[in-house]
Amino acid sequence: MKDAIRDKVAIVGAGCSQFGENWDKAPEDMIVEAAYEAYEDAGIDDPQARIEAVFCGALYPSRGSAEVAESLKLFDRPVSLVQNYCATGTDAFRYGVFSVACGLYDTVLVVGFDKPKDRGVSGPSAAQTGVRGLPMTPAGWFSLCAARYFETFGAGREDLARIAVKNHHNGTLAPKSMLKREITVDDVLKARIISWPFGLYDCAAQSDGAAAAILTRRELAGSFRDDPVLVRAVSIALAPNPQSDPDFDFLRWKPTIYAARQAYEQAGISKPFEEIDVAQVHDCFTLTELLSYEDLGFCEKGSAKEHIASGTFELKGELPVNTDGGLKTFGHPTGATGVRMIYENYKQLQGKADQRQVEGATVALSHNIGGAPQACGIAILATP
Amino acid sequence: MAGIASFAAYIPRWRLPLAAIAGGGREVREGGPEKAVAYFDEDSATMAVAAAVNCLAGFDRARVDGLLFASTTYPYKEKQGASLIAKALDLRRDLWTADLGGSLRAGTGALRAALDAVRAGSAANVLVVASDCRLGAPRSALERNFADGAAALLVSGEDVAAEAQASHAISDEVIDLWRTDDDPFVHSWEDRFVVERYQESLAQAVRGLLEKTGSRPADFARCAVYAPDARSHKRALGSLGFDPASGVQDALFGRLGNAGAAFSLLLFAAALEEASPGERLLLASYGDGADAFAFETGERILKLRDKRGVKWHLARRKPLLDYDKYLRTRNLQATEFDRREGGGVSATVHFRDRDEDVSFRGHRCRRCGTLQFPYQRVCYRCFAKDEFESVRLSDRTGKVMSYTFDYFAGSPDPPLIVSMIETEGGCRVQLQMTDADPKEVKLDLPVEFAFRKIHEAGGTPNYFWKCTPVR
Questions:
Q1: Angle between the A286-295 and A254-267 helix axes, to the nearest 10 degrees?
Q2: What's the Rg (C-alpha) of chain B?
Q3: H or E stretch including A380?
């Protein structure tokens, strides 16, 4: 049944650590910061008694599930580690939602976290274990659509630059973002090229961070708070590696299209642009956000640049995207990002997004895509 | 009867002006003497593959039953080069492979062995490939003298274009140029000593050949002869009675350079590509002695005019005016991160993936016909399981579906051009592009494939294929 989980699960608490180059924080520090903010938000003062299961998302955890269990002293209960490239956080959330929807657990914690800065990024990338598919430059993977998309639809670096400018601006309004700096289109175009067409400002940086959410069944939500947020849909989809897919057209990312179809079916959404009020979209690179406008069905394939120019996706536009500044200003601790987006959407739907608030938002979407890219996760939240 | 059924060359595109090596702060311009140098992703093995591919164009590779690889600079001391090259060429496994090294005469030594094998009937079609990538110490006379390149000859008893008539070999125990296992650079004794030893052995070999065949220098329409430098080339041949003005193949100093074990065979290829039927050719090389061969061309020599030989390669050049860049590509300039660091590729992974990685073979689903790379068990399109047949991709052309210029991944010559290619037949492969300028990269650009060194992690060369623009 496509709607088996629709509106059955509620988020009753959420937390988010400061994102940034957290040199002086261990994973434990960030996990505790995010989880305890979520506990406080949910009114839980005895988490070790109340939390019945934990789903963690982390792509580079040094101690796996034990990282979270030890940090939060949550023992004698299931603690699972979930991984799915950049969709890790959303996928961990998805398992949390399932575990609550099936009735096995009343109160479940989801924690996404990662500390990529501990690995150091000043040298060449990871060990060369093979000879194919090199170099392993994510900016290169995500630029794959650029040449053909630009030529087919007459788009260019300027369109990408406007996305970076928008997100930088939004990030100045988000207390927990890493970067709080306005930039100009010119800054973006003049920056050194990482992997064409991406310059420095077209790329989100890696950062450290954690985010958490507390889930319960809808019928129990009232015992936590008056303004729970419902989970309307969560989807995950894998698509073929675009580097070997015989049917890849270099104009769209299939994982997003697949995951969006699933999520909209679960949610009963047929006109995403009209029915979604706010969206957090995976802007690992500016082009990823641009393609996502289309691949999520917000606008026709090829029309993104018109909307970028007219401000459709800006904070005051018809469908604000990346209201907290996205990966661009938060950075991308891979496991945390999906949950950080859910945190922002949760705050938006409760009317607690301060200067970032999208007026009257009742339906919010979050989107992550990663790997080659091959994996996409989407979550749709709604007010009851 | 045995002789040359096909031949080809490979000369890298980069040309380093000798003036760039001299240094001294002078501005380096094109137009003066230059030498061919391998790109950062090339070495003796990759150049050998390129020359062999050119040589085997139009020939059924399944008929090759021997491959002899001659080089003084193959990276491994233990791990055969001929078997690697054979795999890159996608040859059959029941094949006689051997490496010859240790001397600049290795190329003609391989040729002699191949001719003898074919005559004796122990092999039918033997590919002889000579390739060298020698290093002289930075800014030395040897560095100015040496060049990188490869030549390939297909030795056979059938479809012979130039029949081998006779050969004569002279051995000499002499340490005039040398390099031990621990030396990155070749050493040399005094120039005049080197030249005298060269002249003496060469003269003995050539005179011995003339005597054996009852011929005189004037009987030879062309001669391709190794020499350490242009002047000694002219003088050695002059003193043997060969007229430098007619028939002597230009030794190409100042355009190619001394290509080591490949040098004499490259000059031979240069002579063959101009030869007409009914000409006698002299081939001679030097290194710890000398080899001399007499050949006679037949009608079939005209059929080989379209081979990618010396002329074809010399016309395709890219000036390298930056001497530092040359040093970096040879790991001769210390950098913060050594390209050879790291654990390297697992031998089991290399073994399992060698059809894809070394032979560049893809797979066609027998049910729906879709070409796929790399190896799959289940078809991307029709989901048929285990209904694949293996297909060679290396000799196809392709076109660029998309590309990026990667300035982030380390490279001695940034940016790395990374492209998504669709081969003839529709197979999608992600490949780096080499020997190309970002300015010439565009959608649908036609490309062909080249066997190159992808990285040196673990201190060993790790090979795969790249694409290059069709020229």
A1: 50
A2: 22
A3: strand A375-382
Please state, in angstroms and rounded to a whole number, the distance separating the CA atoms of residues B381 and A246.
8
Residue type, B36: A
- Interchain proximity A246–B426, CB inside 8 Å: yes
Candidates B73, B85, B168; CA nearest to B128 is B85
How does strand B66-70 pair with strand B318-319?
unpaired
Spatial separation of the C-alpha atoms in residues B88 and B67, rounded to whole Å: 12
Helix (H) / strand (E) element for B97: namely strand B96-100
Lowest mean pLDDT across A124-138, A217-231, A356-370, B326-340: A124-138
Tokens coding B379: 């078809």
Distance (Å, rounded) from C-alpha B58 to C-alpha B88? 17
Pairing of strands B96-100, A363-370: unpaired
pLDDT, tens digit, 9 for 90 and up, residues A173-211: 999 999 999 999 999 999 999 999 999 999 999 999 999
Q: Which two tokens stand for residue B62?
A: 């399944």
Measured CA to CA, the distance from residue B136 to residue B146 in angstroms comes to: 7
Using a CB-CB cut-off of 8 Å, the residues of chain A touching B337 are 123-124
**Cβ-based neighbours of B205, under 8 Å, separated by 6 or more:** B168, B169, B170, B284, B289, B290, B291, B292
**Percent of chain B at pLDDT above 70?**
100
As beta bridge partners, residue A73 has none
DSSP one-letter code for B432: E
Instruction: State the DSSP H helix or E strand holding residue B131, giving kind and residue range, or none if neither.
Output: strand B125-133
Tens digits of per-residue pLDDT, A34-83?
A: 999 999 999 999 999 999 999 999 998 889 999 999 999 999 999 999 99
Structure tokens at A172: 């100045």
The complex's ipTM works out to: 0.92
Interface contact A247, partner B, CB < 8 A: yes
Residue with tokens 């300027």: A158
Q: Shortest CA distance to B210 belongs to which of B282, B297, B298?
A: B282
Can you tell me the distance from the alpha carbon of B334 to that of B317, in angstroms, rounded to the nearest whole number? 28
Residues A132-155 have a mean pLDDT of 95
A19 DSSP assignment: P
Asked if residue B427 lies in contact with residue B401, where contact means CB atoms within 8 angstroms, the answer is: no
Q: What is the pLDDT averaged over residues A134-139?
A: 92
Q: Do A143 and B343 touch (CB under 8 A)?
A: no
Distance CA A336, CA A115 (A): 9
Q: Is B471 helix (H, G, I), strand (E, B) or coil?
A: coil
Give which of A181, A380, A138, A164 is closest to A272, Cα–Cα. Answer: A380
- The reply to whether residue B428 touches residue A244, judged by beta carbons under 8 angstroms, is yes
Contacts of B356 in chain A (CB under 8 A): 132
Q: Are A166 and A268 in contact (CB under 8 A)?
A: no
Which residues in chain B (401-460) have CB-CB distances under 8 A to chain A? 401-410, 415-416, 418, 420, 426-430, 432, 438, 443, 454-455, 457-458
CA distance linking residue A366 with residue A343, whole number of Å: 10
